[in-house]
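Re: that chain you flagged

S.,

Sorry for the slow reply, it's been a week of failed gels. I finally had a moment to sit down with the sequence you sent. For the record, here it is as I used it:
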Amino acid sequence: MFRNTCIGLLIIIAFGACHFNRKAKNNTENSFDTLMVKDVHTLSNADSIAMQHLDLDIKVDMDKKQITGCAVWTINNYKSAKQLILDTYDMAIDSVFVDGKSVSHSLDTQIKFLGSALHIPIGNGTKLVKVFYKTGRNARALQWLDSQQTHDKKHPFLYTQSESIYARSWIPCADGPGIRFTYSAHVTVPKWLLALMSALNPQEVSADGVYDFSMDTPIPAYLMALAVGDIAFKGIDERTGVYAEPGMIEKARYEFEDVGKMVNTAEQLYGHYRWGRYDVLVLPPGFPIGGMENPRLTFCTPTVIAGDRSLVSLIAHELAHSWSGNLVTNATWDDFWLNEGFTNYFERRIMEQMMGIGYSDMLWELGYQDLVDNVKELGATSKDTWLKLDLKGRDPDDGLTDIPYEKGSHFLKLIENTVGRERFDRFLATYFETHAFKTITTEAFLNYMDTTLLKDDPEQKKMIDIDAWVYGPGIPANCPRAGQERFLRVDGERDKFLKGTPPATLTTLEWTTHEWLQFLRKMPADLSALQMKKLDDAFMFRNSGNSEIADLWFIMSVRANYSAPYPKMEQFLSSVGRRKFLEPLYGEMMKTPKNAEMAKRLYEKYRQNYHPLAQESLDKMVLKKG
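Prediction finished late last night. Pasting the C-alpha coordinates below so you have them in one place:
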Protein backbone atom coordinates (compact mmCIF):
# COMPACT_ATOMS: atom_id res chain seq x y z
CA MET A 1 0.00 0.00 0.00
CA PHE A 2 1.37 3.41 -1.01
CA ARG A 3 1.44 6.26 1.47
CA ASN A 4 -1.00 8.93 0.31
CA THR A 5 -0.01 12.51 -0.51
CA CYS A 6 -1.99 14.15 2.30
CA ILE A 7 -0.19 12.17 4.96
CA GLY A 8 3.11 12.98 3.31
CA LEU A 9 2.40 16.73 3.46
CA LEU A 10 1.42 16.53 7.10
CA ILE A 11 4.69 14.81 7.86
CA ILE A 12 6.67 17.56 6.15
CA ILE A 13 4.88 20.19 8.26
CA ALA A 14 5.24 18.29 11.52
CA PHE A 15 8.85 17.23 11.01
CA GLY A 16 10.18 20.58 9.86
CA ALA A 17 13.49 20.80 8.02
CA CYS A 18 13.97 17.19 7.01
CA HIS A 19 13.16 16.41 3.38
CA PHE A 20 10.71 13.52 3.18
CA ASN A 21 10.40 11.25 0.15
CA ARG A 22 6.83 10.03 -0.39
CA LYS A 23 7.69 6.97 -2.48
CA ALA A 24 7.62 4.56 0.46
CA LYS A 25 5.70 1.32 0.29
CA ASN A 26 4.19 -0.70 3.09
CA ASN A 27 6.20 -3.89 2.77
CA THR A 28 4.47 -5.54 5.70
CA GLU A 29 4.46 -8.97 4.12
CA ASN A 30 8.19 -8.89 3.41
CA SER A 31 9.03 -7.38 6.80
CA PHE A 32 7.13 -10.01 8.79
CA ASP A 33 9.05 -12.68 6.93
CA THR A 34 12.53 -11.31 7.50
CA LEU A 35 13.80 -12.21 10.95
CA MET A 36 13.16 -15.90 11.54
CA VAL A 37 15.69 -16.42 14.35
CA LYS A 38 17.27 -14.16 16.94
CA ASP A 39 20.35 -12.53 15.48
CA VAL A 40 22.99 -12.12 18.20
CA HIS A 41 24.74 -9.38 16.24
CA THR A 42 21.93 -6.85 16.34
CA LEU A 43 20.89 -5.01 19.49
CA SER A 44 17.61 -4.06 17.81
CA ASN A 45 14.19 -5.56 18.51
CA ALA A 46 13.37 -6.08 14.84
CA ASP A 47 12.11 -9.55 15.78
CA SER A 48 9.13 -7.73 17.36
CA ILE A 49 8.69 -4.75 15.03
CA ALA A 50 8.49 -4.82 11.22
CA MET A 51 10.99 -2.35 9.74
CA GLN A 52 9.17 -1.51 6.52
CA HIS A 53 10.77 1.54 4.92
CA LEU A 54 13.61 4.01 5.51
CA ASP A 55 13.50 7.63 4.33
CA LEU A 56 17.01 9.02 4.62
CA ASP A 57 17.87 12.71 4.37
CA ILE A 58 21.58 13.36 4.86
CA LYS A 59 24.28 15.90 4.12
CA VAL A 60 27.84 14.78 3.42
CA ASP A 61 30.46 17.23 4.71
CA MET A 62 33.78 16.32 3.06
CA ASP A 63 35.72 18.91 5.09
CA LYS A 64 34.42 17.83 8.51
CA LYS A 65 34.35 14.19 7.40
CA GLN A 66 30.88 13.77 8.79
CA ILE A 67 27.40 12.74 7.71
CA THR A 68 24.51 14.59 9.36
CA GLY A 69 20.78 14.31 8.85
CA CYS A 70 17.80 12.21 9.74
CA ALA A 71 16.47 8.70 9.29
CA VAL A 72 12.69 8.24 9.17
CA TRP A 73 11.54 4.70 9.77
CA THR A 74 8.11 3.45 8.76
CA ILE A 75 7.33 0.57 11.11
CA ASN A 76 4.55 -1.87 11.95
CA ASN A 77 4.40 -2.44 15.68
CA TYR A 78 2.51 -5.69 15.24
CA LYS A 79 3.52 -7.08 18.65
CA SER A 80 2.62 -3.87 20.53
CA ALA A 81 6.19 -3.29 21.70
CA LYS A 82 6.74 -0.41 24.14
CA GLN A 83 9.96 0.73 22.53
CA LEU A 84 11.85 0.63 19.27
CA ILE A 85 15.49 -0.35 19.67
CA LEU A 86 17.93 0.53 16.89
CA ASP A 87 21.61 -0.23 16.36
CA THR A 88 24.13 2.64 16.41
CA TYR A 89 27.92 2.80 16.51
CA ASP A 90 29.92 5.92 17.46
CA MET A 91 26.96 8.12 16.57
CA ALA A 92 25.55 11.27 18.16
CA ILE A 93 21.75 11.29 18.43
CA ASP A 94 20.43 14.86 18.42
CA SER A 95 16.67 14.31 18.71
CA VAL A 96 13.92 11.80 18.08
CA PHE A 97 10.32 12.24 16.92
CA VAL A 98 7.56 9.64 17.03
CA ASP A 99 4.62 10.32 14.69
CA GLY A 100 5.67 13.99 14.60
CA LYS A 101 6.06 14.48 18.37
CA SER A 102 9.39 14.95 20.13
CA VAL A 103 10.20 12.13 22.55
CA SER A 104 12.99 11.35 24.95
CA HIS A 105 15.48 8.64 24.03
CA SER A 106 18.39 6.82 25.61
CA LEU A 107 21.64 5.44 24.26
CA ASP A 108 23.28 2.49 25.99
CA THR A 109 26.97 2.22 26.77
CA GLN A 110 28.87 0.92 23.76
CA ILE A 111 29.41 -2.84 23.53
CA LYS A 112 32.52 -4.14 21.77
CA PHE A 113 31.80 -4.88 18.10
CA LEU A 114 28.07 -4.21 18.49
CA GLY A 115 27.93 -0.50 19.32
CA SER A 116 25.17 1.18 21.35
CA ALA A 117 21.46 0.40 21.47
CA LEU A 118 19.19 3.40 20.89
CA HIS A 119 15.94 3.14 22.89
CA ILE A 120 12.88 5.03 21.62
CA PRO A 121 9.45 4.87 23.34
CA ILE A 122 6.59 4.03 20.97
CA GLY A 123 2.90 3.17 21.15
CA ASN A 124 0.76 0.42 19.69
CA GLY A 125 -0.19 2.52 16.68
CA THR A 126 3.20 4.11 16.01
CA LYS A 127 3.96 4.36 12.31
CA LEU A 128 6.84 6.82 11.90
CA VAL A 129 10.01 7.22 13.94
CA LYS A 130 12.45 9.95 12.99
CA VAL A 131 16.02 10.19 14.29
CA PHE A 132 18.31 13.21 13.80
CA TYR A 133 21.96 12.18 14.09
CA LYS A 134 25.62 12.78 13.26
CA THR A 135 28.28 10.20 12.46
CA GLY A 136 31.35 9.97 14.68
CA ARG A 137 35.07 10.03 13.98
CA ASN A 138 35.30 6.26 14.37
CA ALA A 139 32.42 5.27 12.08
CA ARG A 140 33.67 1.89 10.90
CA ALA A 141 31.74 1.92 7.62
CA LEU A 142 33.18 5.19 6.35
CA GLN A 143 36.45 5.88 4.62
CA TRP A 144 37.10 9.55 4.00
CA LEU A 145 39.87 10.06 1.46
CA ASP A 146 41.79 13.27 0.95
CA SER A 147 42.44 14.15 -2.67
CA GLN A 148 45.98 12.74 -2.49
CA GLN A 149 44.57 9.34 -1.54
CA THR A 150 42.49 9.06 -4.71
CA HIS A 151 43.56 7.97 -8.17
CA ASP A 152 43.25 11.40 -9.80
CA LYS A 153 44.37 13.35 -6.70
CA LYS A 154 42.00 16.24 -7.41
CA HIS A 155 39.02 15.90 -5.07
CA PRO A 156 38.21 14.12 -1.79
CA PHE A 157 36.23 10.88 -1.83
CA LEU A 158 33.91 9.02 0.53
CA TYR A 159 32.68 5.46 0.35
CA THR A 160 30.94 3.10 2.73
CA GLN A 161 31.45 -0.56 3.56
CA SER A 162 28.39 -1.71 5.51
CA GLU A 163 29.01 -5.47 5.61
CA SER A 164 28.94 -7.07 8.05
CA ILE A 165 27.53 -4.86 10.85
CA TYR A 166 28.87 -1.43 9.93
CA ALA A 167 25.70 0.17 8.51
CA ARG A 168 24.88 1.13 12.12
CA SER A 169 27.85 3.52 12.11
CA TRP A 170 26.29 5.76 9.44
CA ILE A 171 22.54 5.03 9.76
CA PRO A 172 20.59 4.32 12.98
CA CYS A 173 19.00 1.06 11.92
CA ALA A 174 18.12 -2.54 12.67
CA ASP A 175 21.40 -3.94 11.40
CA GLY A 176 21.09 -7.63 10.65
CA PRO A 177 21.10 -9.64 7.40
CA GLY A 178 17.66 -11.06 8.21
CA ILE A 179 15.99 -7.64 8.43
CA ARG A 180 14.86 -6.29 5.04
CA PHE A 181 13.33 -2.92 4.16
CA THR A 182 12.90 -0.57 1.21
CA TYR A 183 14.45 2.87 1.23
CA SER A 184 14.51 6.33 -0.31
CA ALA A 185 17.30 8.85 0.18
CA HIS A 186 17.82 12.58 -0.30
CA VAL A 187 21.57 13.25 -0.27
CA THR A 188 23.34 16.61 -0.38
CA VAL A 189 27.04 16.72 -1.32
CA PRO A 190 29.51 19.38 -2.57
CA LYS A 191 28.34 20.63 -5.97
CA TRP A 192 31.28 19.33 -7.97
CA LEU A 193 30.91 15.72 -6.77
CA LEU A 194 28.68 12.82 -7.82
CA ALA A 195 26.76 10.75 -5.25
CA LEU A 196 25.87 7.09 -5.84
CA MET A 197 23.99 4.54 -3.74
CA SER A 198 22.80 0.94 -3.86
CA ALA A 199 19.72 2.15 -5.71
CA LEU A 200 18.66 3.78 -8.98
CA ASN A 201 21.63 6.03 -9.79
CA PRO A 202 22.39 9.20 -11.76
CA GLN A 203 24.96 9.09 -14.54
CA GLU A 204 26.14 12.71 -14.35
CA VAL A 205 26.83 15.36 -11.73
CA SER A 206 23.88 17.37 -10.39
CA ALA A 207 24.30 21.15 -10.66
CA ASP A 208 23.13 21.74 -7.09
CA GLY A 209 24.81 18.74 -5.44
CA VAL A 210 21.47 17.21 -4.46
CA TYR A 211 20.55 13.63 -5.36
CA ASP A 212 17.45 11.52 -4.78
CA PHE A 213 17.57 7.73 -4.68
CA SER A 214 15.02 4.95 -4.48
CA MET A 215 15.29 1.24 -3.71
CA ASP A 216 11.80 -0.25 -3.92
CA THR A 217 13.00 -3.80 -3.35
CA PRO A 218 13.56 -4.78 0.31
CA ILE A 219 17.22 -5.20 1.28
CA PRO A 220 19.08 -5.66 4.59
CA ALA A 221 21.17 -2.86 6.11
CA TYR A 222 24.50 -4.41 5.12
CA LEU A 223 23.59 -3.68 1.49
CA MET A 224 23.14 0.04 2.16
CA ALA A 225 25.92 1.86 0.29
CA LEU A 226 27.02 5.40 -0.51
CA ALA A 227 29.90 6.79 -2.55
CA VAL A 228 30.71 10.47 -3.13
CA GLY A 229 33.51 11.73 -5.34
CA ASP A 230 34.74 12.95 -8.69
CA ILE A 231 33.16 10.09 -10.63
CA ALA A 232 32.48 9.55 -14.33
CA PHE A 233 30.21 7.02 -16.05
CA LYS A 234 30.57 4.89 -19.19
CA GLY A 235 27.84 2.57 -20.46
CA ILE A 236 28.52 -1.02 -21.51
CA ASP A 237 25.08 -1.99 -22.81
CA GLU A 238 21.47 -1.00 -22.15
CA ARG A 239 21.51 -2.20 -18.53
CA THR A 240 25.17 -2.28 -17.49
CA GLY A 241 27.89 0.32 -17.09
CA VAL A 242 30.92 1.38 -15.09
CA TYR A 243 31.67 4.30 -12.78
CA ALA A 244 35.21 5.38 -11.89
CA GLU A 245 37.35 8.46 -11.37
CA PRO A 246 37.83 10.26 -14.72
CA GLY A 247 41.48 9.21 -14.94
CA MET A 248 40.49 5.54 -14.52
CA ILE A 249 37.24 5.41 -16.49
CA GLU A 250 38.63 4.35 -19.89
CA LYS A 251 40.70 1.53 -18.38
CA ALA A 252 37.72 0.40 -16.33
CA ARG A 253 35.39 0.47 -19.32
CA TYR A 254 37.84 -1.68 -21.31
CA GLU A 255 38.31 -4.13 -18.44
CA PHE A 256 34.58 -4.65 -17.97
CA GLU A 257 33.63 -5.03 -21.62
CA ASP A 258 32.02 -8.41 -20.97
CA VAL A 259 29.93 -7.49 -17.91
CA GLY A 260 26.73 -7.34 -19.97
CA LYS A 261 27.46 -10.82 -21.30
CA MET A 262 28.00 -11.99 -17.72
CA VAL A 263 24.52 -10.83 -16.74
CA ASN A 264 23.03 -12.65 -19.72
CA THR A 265 24.98 -15.81 -18.87
CA ALA A 266 23.87 -15.72 -15.24
CA GLU A 267 20.24 -15.37 -16.31
CA GLN A 268 20.55 -18.41 -18.56
CA LEU A 269 21.70 -20.42 -15.57
CA TYR A 270 19.39 -19.40 -12.73
CA GLY A 271 16.66 -17.06 -13.86
CA HIS A 272 15.87 -13.41 -14.50
CA TYR A 273 18.05 -10.66 -13.04
CA ARG A 274 15.64 -8.95 -10.62
CA TRP A 275 17.40 -5.63 -9.90
CA GLY A 276 17.03 -3.56 -13.09
CA ARG A 277 20.50 -2.17 -13.84
CA TYR A 278 23.83 -3.76 -12.97
CA ASP A 279 26.65 -1.22 -12.74
CA VAL A 280 30.16 -1.37 -11.27
CA LEU A 281 31.94 1.38 -9.34
CA VAL A 282 35.74 1.19 -9.28
CA LEU A 283 36.80 2.73 -5.98
CA PRO A 284 40.07 4.43 -5.02
CA PRO A 285 42.95 2.20 -3.91
CA GLY A 286 42.10 2.09 -0.18
CA PHE A 287 39.06 -0.19 -0.64
CA PRO A 288 39.77 -3.08 1.78
CA ILE A 289 38.12 -5.95 -0.06
CA GLY A 290 37.84 -7.23 -3.62
CA GLY A 291 34.24 -6.29 -4.18
CA MET A 292 30.99 -5.57 -2.41
CA GLU A 293 27.73 -6.73 -3.92
CA ASN A 294 25.67 -3.62 -3.23
CA PRO A 295 22.42 -4.03 -5.22
CA ARG A 296 22.50 -2.36 -8.64
CA LEU A 297 26.00 -1.01 -7.96
CA THR A 298 28.88 -3.37 -7.18
CA PHE A 299 31.76 -1.63 -5.43
CA CYS A 300 35.08 -3.08 -6.58
CA THR A 301 38.78 -2.70 -5.97
CA PRO A 302 41.00 -1.05 -8.60
CA THR A 303 43.33 -4.04 -8.21
CA VAL A 304 41.03 -5.89 -10.62
CA ILE A 305 42.13 -3.51 -13.41
CA ALA A 306 44.96 -5.60 -14.87
CA GLY A 307 44.72 -4.31 -18.44
CA ASP A 308 43.95 -7.73 -19.93
CA ARG A 309 40.55 -8.62 -18.38
CA SER A 310 42.25 -11.46 -16.54
CA LEU A 311 40.73 -10.82 -13.10
CA VAL A 312 37.10 -10.24 -14.02
CA SER A 313 35.97 -13.42 -12.27
CA LEU A 314 35.70 -11.09 -9.26
CA ILE A 315 32.90 -9.25 -11.08
CA ALA A 316 31.24 -12.58 -11.87
CA HIS A 317 31.31 -13.25 -8.13
CA GLU A 318 29.70 -9.94 -7.19
CA LEU A 319 27.12 -10.32 -9.97
CA ALA A 320 26.24 -13.81 -8.70
CA HIS A 321 25.36 -12.23 -5.35
CA SER A 322 22.38 -10.68 -7.13
CA TRP A 323 20.84 -14.14 -6.69
CA SER A 324 22.71 -15.67 -3.74
CA GLY A 325 22.90 -13.08 -0.98
CA ASN A 326 20.93 -10.14 -2.28
CA LEU A 327 17.89 -12.09 -3.52
CA VAL A 328 18.08 -14.94 -0.98
CA THR A 329 19.97 -13.85 2.12
CA ASN A 330 21.56 -15.69 5.04
CA ALA A 331 19.39 -15.04 8.11
CA THR A 332 22.37 -14.50 10.43
CA TRP A 333 26.14 -14.30 10.03
CA ASP A 334 26.36 -17.85 11.39
CA ASP A 335 24.75 -18.85 8.07
CA PHE A 336 27.24 -16.85 5.98
CA TRP A 337 28.07 -19.83 3.74
CA LEU A 338 24.57 -19.57 2.25
CA ASN A 339 25.67 -16.26 0.75
CA GLU A 340 29.28 -16.91 -0.16
CA GLY A 341 29.38 -20.63 -0.87
CA PHE A 342 26.50 -20.33 -3.31
CA THR A 343 28.07 -17.25 -4.89
CA ASN A 344 31.46 -18.92 -5.34
CA TYR A 345 29.75 -21.87 -7.01
CA PHE A 346 27.65 -19.59 -9.23
CA GLU A 347 30.69 -17.47 -10.16
CA ARG A 348 32.54 -20.54 -11.43
CA ARG A 349 29.53 -21.70 -13.41
CA ILE A 350 29.40 -18.28 -15.08
CA MET A 351 33.12 -18.42 -15.91
CA GLU A 352 32.84 -21.97 -17.20
CA GLN A 353 30.02 -20.89 -19.52
CA MET A 354 32.03 -17.91 -20.80
CA MET A 355 35.61 -19.23 -20.78
CA GLY A 356 35.36 -23.01 -20.91
CA ILE A 357 35.74 -25.81 -18.40
CA GLY A 358 39.55 -25.69 -18.45
CA TYR A 359 39.42 -22.12 -17.17
CA SER A 360 36.87 -22.83 -14.44
CA ASP A 361 38.86 -25.92 -13.39
CA MET A 362 41.75 -23.59 -12.56
CA LEU A 363 39.47 -21.42 -10.41
CA TRP A 364 38.25 -24.50 -8.57
CA GLU A 365 41.77 -25.81 -7.97
CA LEU A 366 43.13 -22.48 -6.71
CA GLY A 367 40.10 -22.28 -4.42
CA TYR A 368 40.78 -25.79 -3.13
CA GLN A 369 44.37 -24.76 -2.35
CA ASP A 370 43.06 -21.75 -0.42
CA LEU A 371 40.72 -24.05 1.51
CA VAL A 372 43.55 -26.41 2.44
CA ASP A 373 45.70 -23.50 3.63
CA ASN A 374 42.85 -21.97 5.63
CA VAL A 375 41.99 -25.25 7.38
CA LYS A 376 45.65 -25.67 8.26
CA GLU A 377 45.73 -22.13 9.68
CA LEU A 378 42.51 -22.49 11.70
CA GLY A 379 43.16 -26.08 12.77
CA ALA A 380 41.71 -29.24 11.25
CA THR A 381 39.40 -29.81 14.24
CA SER A 382 38.42 -26.17 14.76
CA LYS A 383 34.72 -25.40 14.91
CA ASP A 384 35.52 -22.36 12.78
CA THR A 385 35.92 -24.80 9.87
CA TRP A 386 32.26 -25.85 10.11
CA LEU A 387 29.94 -24.38 7.49
CA LYS A 388 27.42 -23.53 10.20
CA LEU A 389 29.37 -21.03 12.26
CA ASP A 390 29.08 -20.09 15.94
CA LEU A 391 29.95 -16.39 16.21
CA LYS A 392 28.09 -15.54 19.40
CA GLY A 393 30.08 -13.00 21.42
CA ARG A 394 32.48 -12.44 18.54
CA ASP A 395 32.93 -9.98 15.71
CA PRO A 396 31.04 -11.47 12.74
CA ASP A 397 34.06 -10.58 10.62
CA ASP A 398 35.76 -13.53 12.35
CA GLY A 399 33.71 -15.63 9.95
CA LEU A 400 35.21 -13.97 6.87
CA THR A 401 37.57 -16.86 6.13
CA ASP A 402 37.83 -19.15 3.13
CA ILE A 403 35.56 -21.68 4.84
CA PRO A 404 32.16 -20.24 3.84
CA TYR A 405 33.49 -19.45 0.36
CA GLU A 406 35.46 -22.55 -0.53
CA LYS A 407 34.11 -25.28 1.71
CA GLY A 408 30.63 -23.98 0.90
CA SER A 409 31.13 -24.00 -2.86
CA HIS A 410 32.83 -27.39 -2.84
CA PHE A 411 29.88 -28.77 -0.86
CA LEU A 412 27.55 -27.56 -3.62
CA LYS A 413 29.88 -28.97 -6.26
CA LEU A 414 29.69 -32.33 -4.52
CA ILE A 415 25.89 -32.18 -4.57
CA GLU A 416 25.97 -31.33 -8.29
CA ASN A 417 28.29 -34.28 -8.98
CA THR A 418 26.05 -36.59 -6.96
CA VAL A 419 22.61 -35.72 -8.32
CA GLY A 420 23.68 -34.54 -11.78
CA ARG A 421 24.13 -31.03 -13.13
CA GLU A 422 20.80 -30.73 -14.93
CA ARG A 423 18.84 -31.74 -11.87
CA PHE A 424 20.89 -29.54 -9.57
CA ASP A 425 20.46 -26.53 -11.86
CA ARG A 426 16.68 -26.95 -11.81
CA PHE A 427 16.81 -27.18 -8.02
CA LEU A 428 18.87 -23.97 -7.68
CA ALA A 429 16.69 -22.00 -10.09
CA THR A 430 13.59 -23.04 -8.13
CA TYR A 431 15.33 -22.29 -4.83
CA PHE A 432 16.13 -18.72 -5.89
CA GLU A 433 12.61 -18.18 -7.20
CA THR A 434 10.87 -19.69 -4.17
CA HIS A 435 12.92 -17.72 -1.63
CA ALA A 436 13.28 -14.46 -3.56
CA PHE A 437 13.59 -11.40 -1.28
CA LYS A 438 13.56 -13.60 1.80
CA THR A 439 16.11 -14.80 4.31
CA ILE A 440 17.00 -18.36 5.18
CA THR A 441 18.89 -20.29 7.84
CA THR A 442 21.19 -23.23 7.28
CA GLU A 443 18.62 -25.56 8.84
CA ALA A 444 15.82 -24.25 6.62
CA PHE A 445 17.94 -24.71 3.51
CA LEU A 446 18.89 -28.27 4.44
CA ASN A 447 15.23 -29.07 5.11
CA TYR A 448 14.25 -27.54 1.74
CA MET A 449 16.91 -29.57 -0.05
CA ASP A 450 15.88 -32.72 1.81
CA THR A 451 12.21 -32.37 0.87
CA THR A 452 12.82 -31.45 -2.77
CA LEU A 453 16.13 -32.49 -4.27
CA LEU A 454 17.00 -35.52 -2.13
CA LYS A 455 13.63 -36.85 -0.96
CA ASP A 456 13.45 -39.72 -3.47
CA ASP A 457 17.00 -41.01 -3.14
CA PRO A 458 18.27 -41.61 0.42
CA GLU A 459 21.38 -43.27 -1.00
CA GLN A 460 22.48 -40.00 -2.62
CA LYS A 461 21.93 -38.19 0.67
CA LYS A 462 24.13 -40.74 2.40
CA MET A 463 26.85 -40.31 -0.25
CA ILE A 464 26.91 -36.55 0.27
CA ASP A 465 27.22 -36.88 4.09
CA ILE A 466 25.66 -33.51 4.86
CA ASP A 467 26.53 -33.47 8.56
CA ALA A 468 30.24 -33.90 7.85
CA TRP A 469 30.15 -30.80 5.67
CA VAL A 470 27.84 -28.53 7.63
CA TYR A 471 28.42 -29.57 11.23
CA GLY A 472 31.86 -31.10 10.98
CA PRO A 473 35.40 -29.71 10.88
CA GLY A 474 38.04 -29.71 8.20
CA ILE A 475 37.70 -30.96 4.64
CA PRO A 476 35.51 -34.07 4.27
CA ALA A 477 37.04 -37.04 2.51
CA ASN A 478 34.56 -36.83 -0.38
CA CYS A 479 35.53 -33.27 -1.30
CA PRO A 480 35.51 -32.99 -5.12
CA ARG A 481 38.57 -31.92 -7.10
CA ALA A 482 38.55 -30.18 -10.45
CA GLY A 483 40.37 -31.31 -13.56
CA GLN A 484 44.13 -30.70 -13.45
CA GLU A 485 45.05 -30.73 -17.14
CA ARG A 486 46.25 -27.14 -17.51
CA PHE A 487 47.92 -27.04 -14.12
CA LEU A 488 49.78 -30.29 -14.79
CA ARG A 489 51.44 -28.58 -17.74
CA VAL A 490 52.35 -25.66 -15.48
CA ASP A 491 53.79 -28.06 -12.91
CA GLY A 492 55.94 -29.59 -15.64
CA GLU A 493 57.41 -26.20 -16.57
CA ARG A 494 58.16 -25.44 -12.93
CA ASP A 495 59.96 -28.75 -12.57
CA LYS A 496 62.11 -27.88 -15.59
CA PHE A 497 63.12 -24.58 -13.99
CA LEU A 498 63.98 -26.21 -10.67
CA LYS A 499 66.20 -28.68 -12.57
CA GLY A 500 68.14 -25.85 -14.20
CA THR A 501 66.26 -24.92 -17.40
CA PRO A 502 66.63 -21.17 -18.08
CA PRO A 503 63.26 -19.45 -17.31
CA ALA A 504 63.12 -17.66 -20.66
CA THR A 505 62.95 -21.02 -22.49
CA LEU A 506 59.92 -22.30 -20.57
CA THR A 507 56.62 -22.67 -22.41
CA THR A 508 54.57 -19.87 -20.84
CA LEU A 509 53.41 -17.74 -23.77
CA GLU A 510 49.66 -18.33 -23.48
CA TRP A 511 49.41 -18.57 -19.72
CA THR A 512 46.61 -16.79 -17.87
CA THR A 513 46.88 -15.22 -14.42
CA HIS A 514 45.76 -18.51 -12.90
CA GLU A 515 48.57 -20.49 -14.50
CA TRP A 516 51.13 -17.97 -13.27
CA LEU A 517 49.67 -18.22 -9.78
CA GLN A 518 49.96 -22.01 -9.88
CA PHE A 519 53.55 -21.70 -11.16
CA LEU A 520 54.57 -19.42 -8.27
CA ARG A 521 52.45 -20.88 -5.48
CA LYS A 522 54.05 -24.30 -5.81
CA MET A 523 57.63 -23.06 -5.80
CA PRO A 524 59.62 -24.48 -2.86
CA ALA A 525 59.68 -22.27 0.24
CA ASP A 526 63.50 -22.27 0.26
CA LEU A 527 63.89 -20.77 -3.22
CA SER A 528 67.20 -18.87 -3.30
CA ALA A 529 67.67 -15.19 -4.07
CA LEU A 530 69.61 -16.22 -7.20
CA GLN A 531 66.72 -18.35 -8.43
CA MET A 532 64.36 -15.46 -7.73
CA LYS A 533 66.57 -13.12 -9.74
CA LYS A 534 66.57 -15.48 -12.72
CA LEU A 535 62.77 -15.63 -12.68
CA ASP A 536 62.47 -11.88 -12.24
CA ASP A 537 64.88 -11.11 -15.07
CA ALA A 538 62.96 -13.41 -17.41
CA PHE A 539 59.37 -12.49 -16.49
CA MET A 540 59.70 -9.07 -14.77
CA PHE A 541 57.35 -10.06 -11.96
CA ARG A 542 58.37 -7.01 -9.89
CA ASN A 543 56.85 -4.76 -12.57
CA SER A 544 53.66 -6.76 -12.98
CA GLY A 545 50.48 -4.72 -13.34
CA ASN A 546 48.55 -7.74 -12.12
CA SER A 547 48.02 -7.29 -8.38
CA GLU A 548 47.51 -11.02 -7.72
CA ILE A 549 50.88 -11.90 -9.27
CA ALA A 550 52.69 -8.86 -7.87
CA ASP A 551 51.59 -9.52 -4.29
CA LEU A 552 52.60 -13.17 -4.44
CA TRP A 553 55.96 -12.21 -5.92
CA PHE A 554 56.63 -9.67 -3.17
CA ILE A 555 55.82 -12.29 -0.52
CA MET A 556 58.24 -14.72 -2.15
CA SER A 557 60.90 -11.98 -2.38
CA VAL A 558 60.69 -11.23 1.34
CA ARG A 559 60.88 -14.94 2.15
CA ALA A 560 64.01 -15.36 -0.03
CA ASN A 561 65.65 -12.07 1.08
CA TYR A 562 65.62 -10.99 -2.55
CA SER A 563 65.61 -7.22 -2.23
CA ALA A 564 65.53 -6.03 -5.85
CA PRO A 565 61.70 -5.76 -5.89
CA TYR A 566 61.51 -3.82 -2.59
CA PRO A 567 61.10 -0.36 -4.19
CA LYS A 568 58.21 -1.72 -6.27
CA MET A 569 56.85 -3.45 -3.17
CA GLU A 570 56.80 -0.15 -1.29
CA GLN A 571 54.99 1.48 -4.19
CA PHE A 572 52.48 -1.39 -4.08
CA LEU A 573 51.92 -0.98 -0.34
CA SER A 574 51.44 2.76 -0.74
CA SER A 575 48.70 2.38 -3.34
CA VAL A 576 46.81 -0.84 -2.51
CA GLY A 577 44.39 -1.13 0.40
CA ARG A 578 42.96 -4.58 -0.19
CA ARG A 579 43.35 -6.77 2.89
CA LYS A 580 43.75 -9.89 0.76
CA PHE A 581 47.11 -8.49 -0.36
CA LEU A 582 48.18 -6.45 2.65
CA GLU A 583 47.79 -9.04 5.39
CA PRO A 584 49.85 -11.86 3.79
CA LEU A 585 52.58 -9.45 2.71
CA TYR A 586 52.94 -7.67 6.04
CA GLY A 587 52.55 -11.06 7.73
CA GLU A 588 55.52 -12.46 5.80
CA MET A 589 57.64 -9.45 6.75
CA MET A 590 56.78 -9.93 10.42
CA LYS A 591 58.37 -13.38 10.50
CA THR A 592 61.96 -12.14 10.98
CA PRO A 593 63.26 -9.25 13.11
CA LYS A 594 64.96 -7.50 10.20
CA ASN A 595 61.93 -7.64 7.93
CA ALA A 596 59.63 -6.78 10.83
CA GLU A 597 61.39 -3.45 11.16
CA MET A 598 60.77 -2.85 7.46
CA ALA A 599 57.11 -3.77 7.93
CA LYS A 600 56.67 -1.28 10.79
CA ARG A 601 58.37 1.49 8.86
CA LEU A 602 56.24 0.94 5.75
CA TYR A 603 53.02 0.47 7.67
CA GLU A 604 53.44 3.64 9.71
CA LYS A 605 54.22 5.52 6.50
CA TYR A 606 51.17 4.30 4.56
CA ARG A 607 48.65 3.41 7.28
CA GLN A 608 46.54 6.48 6.52
CA ASN A 609 45.92 5.14 2.99
CA TYR A 610 44.15 2.05 4.33
CA HIS A 611 40.49 1.62 5.29
CA PRO A 612 39.72 1.54 9.05
CA LEU A 613 38.86 -2.17 8.77
CA ALA A 614 42.29 -2.90 7.30
CA GLN A 615 43.92 -0.71 9.94
CA GLU A 616 42.25 -2.73 12.70
CA SER A 617 43.72 -6.05 11.56
CA LEU A 618 47.11 -4.63 10.58
CA ASP A 619 47.49 -2.71 13.84
CA LYS A 620 47.28 -6.06 15.62
CA MET A 621 49.67 -7.76 13.22
CA VAL A 622 52.33 -5.10 12.71
CA LEU A 623 52.06 -2.75 15.70
CA LYS A 624 50.88 -5.46 18.13
CA LYS A 625 47.95 -3.31 19.26
CA GLY A 626 44.72 -4.74 20.57
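What I noticed first: Residues 447 and 454 are 10 Å apart (CA to CA).

Talk soon,
D.
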